[in-house]
Amino acid sequence: MHTRPEGIDLAARSRARRRALQALYAWQLSGSHMNAVIEQFRHEQDMEVADLDYFEDLLRGVEHHVDELDILLRPHLDREVGEVDPIERAALRLAAYELKHRLDVPYRVVINEAIEVTKRFGADHGHSYVNGVLDKVAAELRTAEKRG
Question: Which fold does the domain 10-147 belong to in CATH?
Answer without folding.
Answer: N-utilizing Substance Protein B Homolog; Chain A (1.10.940)
